[in-house]
Amino acid sequence: MPTPDSDPQSARTLSGIAYAMTGFSIFSLQDAIVKWLVMSLPVWEILFVRSLVIIVFALMIAGPRSVPSIFTGPSRNALLIRSALILAAWISYFTAAKSLHLAELVTIYFSTPIFVILMSVFALKETVGAARWATTLIGFIGVMIAANPSGTTEILPIFLTLIAAFCWAWTNILVRMISRTETTMTLMIASNGLFIVACGIMLPFVWVTPDLFSIGLMIALGGVGGLGQYFLFEGYRLAPASAVAPFEYVTLVWAFAWGYLIWHDWPAEHVFFGAGLILLSGLGLLYVENRTFRKTLRS
After folding, report:
1. CA terminus-to-terminus distance, the chain
2. How big is the CA angle at 234 (ends 197 and 147), to the nearest 5 degrees?
């Protein structure tokens, strides 16, 4: 019988799912803050302040000793590629947020779990069973029913959101690969360091002086973004990407909750039905992973 010290993969998967669900929930608050900020401030400025706050806290926790491995470690090229992909994803996503409602934005973005599972098969050689495929597809159907993104004629924001989803899916795959040799804090410092450089170059050309409320929101955005990154990176470090991906659908439930609390949008009946399918998909996968864990303990 395995001992607790043997740390079976099924136990790691359950822990990874818990971390990732926490990260996804935190990121939903980030989406709401971003939606608010992009209406009055340029994307580059918001990302610069957000990344500066995150990297300050990451350096306070990890210390400057974590910086050299970014340039000399075995994953330095992958870290650079991942950071560039995150930058492309956030620039696309933040820009699209100006034109799309929060529900539309999140719904289109939920093509990400499908991309993740497809990439996990080819890039990570993960075995994706029927249960994971089924729960992911059920969750995606629930997303489409809940948000009902019909009638929009703005093609560019939709295209930008799809680009963001594809780039973010690749970053999740790279997290799984890089985390074998690098710590979560190293991942955070590398990605946000590139953000500061790239956004800092653009800052003189786009700067808009924010009011005190916007400054506070951007600082809060950095804190929320950093916390979300930590939990999400830990989730993908512990669990297979294809197991974590379906749980990203929990963000949709939060998106509608924030929509009601901030903009007083009350979801229609089809939203609650779709949310039920999303919850069913997550609970179904959690049941499968827990059953696997129990079988491992009995063997």
Report:
1. 6
2. 85
